[in-house]
Design goal:
Distance between the termini: 136 Å
Strand content: 15-25%
Mean pLDDT: 74
CATH class of the largest domain: Alpha Beta
Number of helices: 7
Low-confidence stretches: none
CATH topology of the largest domain: Beta-Lactamase
Helix content: 55-70%
Number of domains: 3
CATH superfamily of the largest domain: PAS domain
Largest sheet: 5 strands, antiparallel
Shape: rod-shaped
Radius of gyration: 42 Å
CATH architecture of the largest domain: 2-Layer Sandwich
């Protein structure tokens, strides 16, 4: 069967054009696929896709999805930055422990107080607080935050108001958040106040007893001489001045 030369040329030309269009189509698909796989928050531009009209609905929806993901990504990055900054520079010691009571994260205040070696260690080897284990168990059992004032024995003798968040699942780990608020200074002030009141009460007892005694003597008819009254009044005045 004889095929005319012009037909063969036309056929080859059409075949060549189809090959080119197929390559361009594959390139467009590759651009879209790459945009999905390597998400960087950039929309797919029409000038980069030859068959834009063909892929216009796909690209339009893809750009909407990219925009939404980009907005969520920005918000998530902002939240992560805020929580990281908040945790790192919070004025009280903060600890995060896992289900095995291993310290997996500490903020700056905790690192300064307990030392960097405390990280990745059991919390009970770092915090010598006898009742801490019961407090953590209580927060896990009740599934809500609990707090209590406890005495720290080691590394320094302190009094802390300890807040435990309760356990939260995060992947394979179950984490608890612990805050330690130092109330040692408040307890010291209370001790000073108690000592002051006790000392003041003791100091007041002697002059008050003296005044009461002299008042009883003045009221006694047998001690009604003017010279004795004058001595009693002077003594009472001196004792009153001691209390002023």
């Amino acid at each position: 069967m004889f095929i005319h030369k012009d037909i063969i040329i036309v056929f080859l030309f059409v075949f060549f054009i189809l090959i080119i269009l197929l390559l361009i189509l594959m390139k467009d698909l590759k651009i879209i696929s790459k945009s999905l796989q390597n998400f960087k928050g950039n929309t797919v531009k029409s000038d980069k896709v030859f068959f834009f009209s063909l892929f216009q609905p796909i690209i339009f929806n893809l750009n909407l999805i990219i925009k939404k993901l980009n907005d969520k990504s920005k918000f998530s990055r902002l939240r992560i930055f805020f929580y990281d900054y908040f945790f790192k520079f919070f004025p009280d010691p903060l600890l995060i422990i896992d289900q095995n009571n291993i310290i997996i994260e500490m903020n700056e205040q905790a690192l300064d107080f307990f030392g960097e070696n405390s990280k990745n260690r059991n919390i009970f080897s770092t915090l010598r607080i006898p009742e801490l284990s019961l407090l953590i168990d209580e927060s896990v059992k009740q599934k809500k935050p609990v707090e209590k004032e406890l005495n720290l024995i080691y590394p320094k003798e302190k009094v802390f108001n300890i807040w435990v968040s309760g356990r939260r699942d995060l992947g394979a780990n179950k984490l608890s958040f612990i805050r330690l608020f130092d109330t040692t200074s408040q307890h010291n002030i209370q001790d000073i106040q108690r000592d002051f009141i006790a000392n003041a009460s003791h100091e007041l007892k002697t002059p008050i007893a003296s005044i009461i005694g002299y008042c009883e003597a003045l009221l006694d008819e047998s001690s009604n001489k003017s010279s004795k009254k004058e001595d009693f009044l002077k003594t009472m005045s001196n004792e009153a001045n001691r209390m002023s």
